[in-house]
Design a protein that fits this description.
One of its GO terms (molecular function) is serine-type endopeptidase activity. InterPro entries: Peptidase_S54_rhomboid_dom (IPR022764), Rhomboid-like_sf (IPR035952). The chain is mostly helical and about 230 residues long. The protein is built from 10 helices and no strands.
Length: about 230
C-alpha cells in the first residue's frame, strides 16, 4: 500500500470559523448597494413601482452622481450638494456594474478589515469615495458624471497596497511587489480605453486609490511617525 504524504488536517477548535468572516460594516455597504440595485432593476423590468419605475436609474444618477457642475454649485453655497460626494457610490449603471463592485468590495474589505479593523476600513472607503469624487470633479471636464462604488474600492486597494508594502518590508522582500495589483488594474483600464474608448470614471478610481492609500498611512499602527521611521531604516 502506497504511503500517503498528505499532512493530517488540524483539529477544529470549538467556537471558531474555518473562514475569516467579512467585517459587518463591509457587509452592510454591500447590502445597501445590492438593495438599491435590486429595486432599480426590478423597477426597470416593471415588477415594482409602476410605469414610472422604468426611469429610476436615470433619476438616481441625475440626483446623486458627481460632476464638475455639482462641485461648482456646491462651492457657490448649495451645501446640500456636498452629500453627493458620498451618495454617488451607491448608484450603479447596470446590474453587472453593481455585481462586480459588490464582489470587489467584499474581497478587499475582508483583507483590509483583517489588517486595520472594520472602523478604519470604513474610514478608508469613505475617504477614498470623497477624494475620488473631488479629483473627478476638479479634472474630468464637462463629460459624463461619476457614480458607483469603484473609487471607494480603489481606496481599499490603496490601503491593501500599503499593508502589503509594510508586510514585504518586514520580511525583507522587494516592496515594489505591493504595487502589482494596481499596476494590473491600470493596465486593464488602458487596454479597455484603447479598444472601446476612454471612460473618464477612471479619474475617480485613481483619486480614490491615492486618497485611500494616504488614509491608510494615517490610520495604520503608528501613523506617519511609524512610516517615517521605517523609511529611515532603509
Amino acid at each position: 500500500m502506497a504511503r500517503s504524504f498528505q499532512k493530517p488536517l488540524p483539529e477544529a477548535v470549538p467556537g471558531t470559523s474555518p473562514v475569516n468572516p467579512v467585517p459587518p460594516v463591509v457587509l452592510a455597504l454591500v447590502l445597501v448597494i445590492a438593495g438599491i440595485e435590486a429595486a432599480v432593476s426590478l423597477g426597470g423590468q416593471g415588477f415594482v413601482g409602476g410605469p414610472g419605475a422604468v426611469g429610476w436609474r436615470v433619476s438616481l444618477i441625475e440626483r446623486f452622481a458627481v460632476s464638475p457642475a455639482v462641485l461648482d454649485y456646491a462651492l457657490q453655497g448649495q451645501a446640500g450638494l456636498w452629500t453627493r460626494f458620498v451618495t454617488y457610490a451607491f448608484v450603479h449603471g447596470s446590474v453587472t456594474h453593481a455585481l462586480f463592485g459588490g464582489a470587489m468590495l467584499l474581497a478587499l474589505g475582508k483583507f483590509v478589515g483583517e489588517g486595520m479593523g472594520q472602523v478604519r476600513t470604513l474610514a478608508v472607503f469613505l475617504a477614498a469615495t470623497v477624494g475620488g469624487g473631488l479629483v473627478f470633479a476638479l479634472t474630468a471636464g464637462d463629460r459624463q458624471p461619476l457614480f458607483g462604488a469603484y473609487p471607494g474600492i480603489y481606496g481599499l486597494i490603496g490601503a491593501f497596497t500599503y499593508l502589503l508594502w509594510l508586510k514585504l518590508g518586514r520580511a525583507g522582500e522587494n516592496r515594489l511587489q505591493a504595487f502589482r495589483m494596481i499596476g494590473v488594474l491600470m493596465a486593464f483600464q488602458l487596454g479597455y480605453a484603447i479598444l472601446f474608448g476612454s471612460n473618464p470614471q477612471w479619474i475617480g478610481d485613481v483619486g480614490g486609490f491615492l486618497a485611500g492609500g494616504a488614509t491608510a498611512v494615517l490610520l495604520a499602527p503608528g501613523g506617519v511617525a511609524a512610516l517615517l521611521a521605517r523609511l529611515r531604516t532603509r
